[in-house]
Amino acid sequence: RQALGEEKDSEVLYRALIARHPHSPLVPDAHLAVGEIEFNRNQFAKALDQFNAIRKYPNSRVYPYGLYKAAWTHYNMRDAAKGLKKLEEVVTYGKTVAQTQVDSSRLDLRKEALNDMTLFFEEVYPAKAAYDYFREQAGDNEVGPILLRMATLYERHSRFADQRVVLDQ
Known about the structure:
There is one protein chain. The protein is mainly alpha-helical. It contains 9 helices and no strands. Helix 5 (80-100) packs antiparallel against helix 6 (110-124), helix 7 (130-138) crosses helix 8 and helix 8 (143-156) runs antiparallel to helix 9. It is elongated.
């Protein structure tokens, strides 16, 4: 139904699956689908409830995507700080998956989260904190490109003093 654009019908079916089959391995996917529907309706509080419900299923393939979508939901609710914390969880999860080489079917959104962190970071922290923050999150090898992305973002927002701070770092 969702693929056919019948959102209301698909939402009813997803919610029925969650209620009637709480132990189904499809429950996290159903929460994600309902969350996406609510997100697209700009019903961010309801969407966040669905994305947060996925936290009960850390072994689910969609677990990191639930965290990632929760981050963007917080951002859309004008809470970049909470969104940034969720993106940090996505990065940590991605590092853990890579180090333990667990199930490769799980989504690895670490790189996407690191790139998106620049937008959230700009609203939460001062430019002088960028190098230390992103070095901790990304590591020595990836910090450079992220700082360049941060500098570009500052330039687009006419925050030239902040851009210089980041480039000097």
